[in-house]
C-alpha cells in the first residue's frame, strides 16, 4: 500500500482583505529577503511547531510511528467503529505528513543539519512502508471490504479509493505465496538501484581518445571540449546549438555512441520490470503501469499513437522542407534540427528575447496568474508574511489562495530564485494534501512551486523569457489543481492521480502563457507600462506553432519506443536495433548508424511505459481550449465547470470516466489524436495569416 503524499496539522481559517493585499508585481519584481536565519524562530517549517529546529524531525518521526501503529490496530480490530477506507487514508496521511515534508526539505534546505535529519526520516518512512506492504492482516481486511462491502456505509468514492489502496498492495506482491512475494520485493529493490545507476550513467560525459578519431573530427572536437588528465576528450553534450555543422555532426555521433555499461543497465531495467509484471499477473510492465490511467492499457496508447503518427507524417514533411531550405538545401540530419529550428524561429520573431522579456516581468506574470484564477475560479493569490522559522531559505514568498465566498483554500510557497545547491529543474511539490477532517472541516493543502530564476540586485525587475513564462504557468497549473481538489481523501487529492490526468491542468495553463487574447491583459513593458504591441503578440504566438508537427512527431517517437520497450521485453532485438527499426516508421529523419541516443533518455526511469502521458494531457488541454475557452478564455462559467466537474475530484474518480464526463464525450484514441491535429492546423492557419 504505497501511500501518497500529505502532511499533518490544520490551520485556523483566516479572513483576508483582498483590497488591502500588497500588489504581487511589487513583491516579485524586486525580491528582498523575507527573514534572516539569525532571527529567533517563532515557529517551525511550514508552520509545524515540531520543526522549529532540525531535532524536531526525530520527535516527529517517533510520533508518526505511534500514530501508524494505532491505525494498524484499529484496521485489524473486528469491532472497529469506522469506515475502513477512512482509517486507511488516515494511516496514509500520517505517513505522508512526514515523508513528503522530509523529502522536500532533503532536496531544498540549505542547512546540512536539516538535510541529514530529513534524510533519516525518509529512510525510516520507507522502512515503515515496506513493513506495511507485507502486512497480510491489513491486506486481508481491505480485500474483504472491497469484495463483500463494509459493515459501515460506503460511497462510490470509498470503493474507488479502497481499490486503489488494494492495487498498491498487490503491486508489491502481497497476494502471492511467500517465495514469489519475496521475489517481487527483490525485483523492486533491483529496479530501484538499476534505475538510479542508469540515471547516473545518462549524465556521464563520453570520454574519447582523440587519436582514435578521424583527424577532422578530433580537430573540431578539441576546439569545443576540454581534455582530462589522461589526454582524452570529455564530450559532455552534443553541441546541438553550434553554428558549425561539422562540430554538430561529430559531437552528436560521439556523445550518442554505443556504451556497453549503459546498454546493460537499460537491458537489466527493462527485463526486471517485465519479470515483475509477469510475477504480479500482468502481461507486461506497460499493462501494470497503465491500469488506473486514462489510457487504461497499452493497446489504447498504441492506437492513439498510430492514428496520430499517420496525421503527423503528412504535416511534418513541410517542416523538414523548411529546415532544408534554411540548410542551403543540404540534407537535414538529426544533429541539425535543434540549430535550424531555433534559427528559423528567431528570424521569424524579428525581436530579440530581451525585447519579449521586457514585457514579462515576474511581477506582471504573477498578477496575470492572479487575474486568470480570479476570472475563472473566483479566487485570489494573497501575499502573507512568512514567520521566522517557517521557511527554509531567503527570498521565499507565501501566497494564501482564497476564494471570495469559501475563504482560504490553501497555501502556495514560492521558491523562485537560484541559489547554491538548489536543484535546477522547475517543479511543484505537494507538502500537504487536502482531506475532509472528522469535524467536516477541510485540511488545508500546502504546496511549493520551485523555479530557478536568475536575478541580480540593482539590475532592475526580474524579467522572464517566454519559455520561462510557460514553465511558471505550467507549475501553477499543478499548484491550483492541488488547491481546488476537494476530495474526501488525501490519497487522491489534487495532483495525486494518474500521470496522464495530472498533466492536463498544467498543460492547459500553458495556453494562458502563449495566447494573444490572454497575454495582452498582463504583459506590460516594465518601464513604459505599455502593453505588448500587436505585432509582437502575433509573432510570439506564431512561433509556438513553427515546427509543431515535427516536434510532436519526435515526442510520439519517444512514446512509441517507451511502449515497445515495456510491452515486448525481453526483446529479440537490442534496444538500439529496436530503436532503428521503429525510427523508420515513426520519425521523419533516418537513424544514424552506430548511435544509441536512448542511453541518454532518463525518462525511461521515472516515466517507464508512461511517456505518452504528455501527449494525452496535451490533447485534453487542446480539446478543452478549443471547445470551451478559445472564444472567452476568462469565462467564469467555464472555469467553474472545469473546477466542479474535473479539478475538484483529483484522482477520486476513475481517470477516463472523470475526463469523459467533463468533456461530455467518450475519450477515445481518435478524439485525442484529432484534438492535437486540430490544434496544430488551427495554429498554423493563424500563424500563416499573421506572417502575411
TrEMBL record:
It comes from the Eukaryota. It is found in: Mitochondrion. The lineage of its organism: Eukaryota, Metazoa, Ecdysozoa, Arthropoda, Hexapoda. GO terms for cellular component: mitochondrion. It comes from Aphis gossypii (Cotton aphid). Keywords: Hydrolase, Metal-binding, Metalloprotease, Mitochondrion, Protease, Transit peptide, Zinc. GO terms for biological process: peptide metabolic process; protein processing involved in protein targeting to mitochondrion. This is Peptidase M3A/M3B catalytic domain-containing protein. Binds 1 zinc ion. Coiled coil: none annotated. Its cofactor is Zn(2+). InterPro entries: M3A_MIP, MetalloPept_cat_dom_sf, Neurolysin/TOP_dom2, Pept_M3A_M3B, Pept_M3A_M3B_dom. Belongs to the peptidase M3 family. GO terms for molecular function: metal ion binding; metalloendopeptidase activity. Residues 241-670 form the Peptidase M3A/M3B catalytic domain.
Amino acid at each position: 500500500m504505497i501511500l501518497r503524499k500529505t502532511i499533518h496539522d490544520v490551520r485556523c481559517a483566516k479572513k483576508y482583505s483582498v483590497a488591502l493585499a500588497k500588489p504581487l508585481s511589487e513583491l516579485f519584481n524586486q525580491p528582498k529577503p523575507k527573514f534572516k536565519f539569525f532571527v529567533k524562530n517563532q515557529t517551525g517549517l511550514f508552520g509545524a511547531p515540531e520543526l522549529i529546529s532540525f531535532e524536531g524531525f526525530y520527535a516527529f518521526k517517533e510520533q508518526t510511528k505511534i500514530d501508524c501503529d494505532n491505525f494498524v490496530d484499529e484496521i485489524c480490530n473486528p469491532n472497529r467503529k469506522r469506515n475502513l477506507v477512512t482509517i486507511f487514508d488516515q494511516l496514509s496521511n500520517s505517513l505522508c505528513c512526514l515523508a513528503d515534508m522530509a523529502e522536500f526539505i532533503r532536496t531544498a534546505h540549505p542547512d546540512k543539519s536539516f538535510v541529514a535529519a530529513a534524510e533519516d526520516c525518509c529512510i525510516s518512512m520507507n522502512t515503515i512502508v515496506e513493513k506495511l506492504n507485507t502486512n497480510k492482516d491489513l491486506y486481508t481486511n481491505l480485500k474483504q471490504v472491497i469484495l463483500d462491502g463494509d459493515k459501515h456505509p460506503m460511497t462510490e468514492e470509498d470503493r474507488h479509493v479502497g481499490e486503489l489502496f488494494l492495487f498498491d498492495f498487490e503491486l508489491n506482491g502481497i497476494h502471492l505465496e511467500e517465495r514469489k512475494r519475496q521475489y517481487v520485493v527483490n525485483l523492486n529493490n533491483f529496479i530501484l538501484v538499476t534505475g538510479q545507476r542508469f540515471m547516473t550513467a545518462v549524465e556521464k560525459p563520453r570520454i574519447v581518445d582523440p587519436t582514435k578519431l578521424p583527424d577532422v573530427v578530433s580537430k573540431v572536437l578539441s576546439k569545443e571540449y576540454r581534455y582530462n588528465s589522461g589526454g582524452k576528450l570529455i564530450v559532455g553534450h552534443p553541441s546541438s546549438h553550434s553554428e558549425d555543422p561539422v562540430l554538430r555532426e561529430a559531437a552528436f555521433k560521439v556523445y550518442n555512441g554505443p556504451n556497453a555499461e549503459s546498454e546493460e543497465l537499460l537491458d537489466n531495467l527493462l527485463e526486471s520490470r517485465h519479470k515483475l509484471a509477469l510475477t504480479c499477473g500482468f502481461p507486461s510492465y506497460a499493462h501494470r503501469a497503465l491500469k488506473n490511467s486514462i489510457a487504461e492499457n497499452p493497446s489504447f496508447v498504441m492506437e492513439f499513437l498510430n492514428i496520430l503518427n499517420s496525421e503527423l507524417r503528412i504535416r511534418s514533411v513541410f517542416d523538414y522542407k523548411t529546415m532544408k531550405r534554411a540548410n542551403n538545401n543540404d540534407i537535414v540530419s538529426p544533429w541539425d534540427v535543434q540549430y535550424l529550428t531555433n534559427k528559423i524561429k528567431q528570424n521569424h520573431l524579428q525581436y530579440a528575447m530581451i525585447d519579449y522579456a521586457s514585457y514579462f516581468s515576474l511581477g506582471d506574470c504573477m498578477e496575470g496568474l492572479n487575474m486568470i484564477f480570479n476570472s475563472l475560479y473566483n479566487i485570489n493569490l494573497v501575499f502573507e508574511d512568512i514567520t521566522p522559522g517557517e521557511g527554509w531559505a531567503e527570498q521565499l514568498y507565501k501566497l494564501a489562495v482564497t476564494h471570495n465566498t469559501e475563504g482560504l483554500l490553501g497555501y502556495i510557497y514560492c521558491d523562485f530564485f537560484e541559489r547554491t545547491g538548489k536543484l535546477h529543474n522547475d517543479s511543484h511539490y505537494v507538502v500537504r494534501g487536502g482531506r475532509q477532517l472528522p469535524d467536516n472541516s477541510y485540511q488545508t493543502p500546502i504546496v511549493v512551486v520551485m523555479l530557478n530564476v536568475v536575478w541580480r540586485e540593482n539590475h532592475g525587475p526580474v524579467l522572464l523569457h517566454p519559455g520561462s513564462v510557460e514553465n511558471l504557468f505550467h507549475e501553477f497549473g499543478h499548484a491550483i489543481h492541488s488547491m481546488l481538489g476537494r476530495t474526501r481523501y488525501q490519497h487522491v487529492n489534487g495532483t495525486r492521480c494518474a500521470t496522464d490526468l495530472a498533466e492536463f491542468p498544467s498543460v492547459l495553463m500553458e495556453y494562458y502563457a502563449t495566447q494573444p487574447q490572454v497575454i495582452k491583459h498582463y504583459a506590460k513593458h516594465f518601464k513604459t507600462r505599455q502593453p505588448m504591441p500587436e505585432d509582437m503578440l502575433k509573432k510570439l504566438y506564431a512561433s509556438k506553432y513553427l515546427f509543431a508537427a515535427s516536434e510532436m512527431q519526435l515526442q510520439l517517437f519517444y512514446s512509441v519506443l517507451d511502449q515497445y520497450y515495456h510491452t515486448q521485453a525481453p526483446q529479440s532485438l537490442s534496444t538500439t536495433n529496436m530503436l532503428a527499426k521503429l525510427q523508420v516508421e515513426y520519425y521523419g529523419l533516418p537513424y544514424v548508424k552506430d548511435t544509441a541516443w536512448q542511453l541518454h533518455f532518463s525518462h525511461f526511469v521515472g516515466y517507464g511505459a508512461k511517456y505518452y502521458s504528455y501527449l494525452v494531457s496535451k490533447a485534453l488541454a487542446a480539446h478543452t481550449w478549443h471547445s470551451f475557452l478559445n472564444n472567452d478564455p476568462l469565462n467564469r462559467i467555464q472555469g467553474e465547470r472545469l473546477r466542479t466537474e474535473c479539478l475538484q475530484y483529483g484522482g477520486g474518480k476513475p481517470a477516463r470516466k472523470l475526463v469523459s464526463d467533463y468533456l461530455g464525450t467518450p475519450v477515445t484514441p481518435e478524439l485525442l489524436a484529432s484534438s492535437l491535429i486540430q490544434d496544430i492546423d488551427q495554429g498554423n492557419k493563424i500563424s500563416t495569416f499573421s506572417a502575411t
